[in-house]
């Protein structure tokens, strides 16, 4: 098992969760990966553009990737951008619902006005049966 899965098994057992399928840690890791990649992509969008542009003659830093293979100079994200991205997600995704008392009050107010009575002849008005193709003779 991967280290992250073992850590999640330990966390779940410490929290007293002992009965779960083997897919639960994988689902938690998938959620964490998707959440963090979304937060980091949002943080990159919130990050102000870099003021240092690469000069054609090139400095040593612009020619080599300081962050390793595949990394670029604009891959540095500030802590403020990450905090802004997390705050924007918390404000939209994990918003608390309104209390039950509020909804009960709204329902009581809405139900105070009775619905109109249903007539004995309700529904779609059809012509006489001899003019319809719904009769037995059809």
TrEMBL record:
The keyword Transcription regulation applies. Keywords: Nucleus, Transcription, Transcription regulation. Residues 49-66 have a biased composition (Polar residues). SUPFAM superfamilies: Histone-fold. Its main location: nucleus. Gene3D superfamilies: Histone, subunit A (1.10.20.10). This is Transcription factor TAFII-31. One of its GO terms (molecular function) is RNA polymerase II general transcription initiation factor activity. It is found in: Nucleus. One of its GO terms (cellular component) is transcription factor TFIID complex. InterPro entries: Histone-fold (IPR009072), TFIID-31 (IPR003162), TFIID_subunit_9 (IPR051431). One of its GO terms (biological process) is RNA polymerase II preinitiation complex assembly. Belongs to the TAF9 family. PANTHER family: TAF9 RNA POLYMERASE II, TATA BOX-BINDING PROTEIN (TBP)-ASSOCIATED FACTOR, TATA-BOX BINDING PROTEIN ASSOCIATED FACTOR 9. The lineage of its organism: Eukaryota, Fungi, Dikarya, Ascomycota, Pezizomycotina. Residues 47-73 are annotated as: Disordered. Pfam families: TFIID-31kDa.
């Amino acid at each position: 098992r991967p280290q992250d899965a073992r850590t999640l098994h330990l966390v779940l057992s410490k929290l007293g969760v002992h009965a779960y399928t083997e897919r639960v840690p994988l689902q938690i890791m998938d959620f964490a990966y998707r959440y963090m990649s979304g937060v980091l992509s949002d943080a990159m969008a919130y990050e102000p553009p870099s003021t240092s542009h690469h000069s054609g003659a090139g400095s040593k830093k612009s020619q080599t990737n300081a962050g390793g293979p595949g990394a670029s100079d604009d891959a540095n994200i500030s802590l403020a951008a990450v905090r802004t991205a997390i705050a924007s997600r918390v404000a939209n995704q994990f918003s608390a619902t309104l209390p039950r008392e509020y909804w009960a009050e709204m329902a009581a107010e809405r139900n105070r006005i009775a619905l109109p009575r249903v007539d004995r002849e309700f529904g779609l008005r059809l012509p006489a049966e001899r003019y319809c193709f719904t009769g037995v003779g059809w």
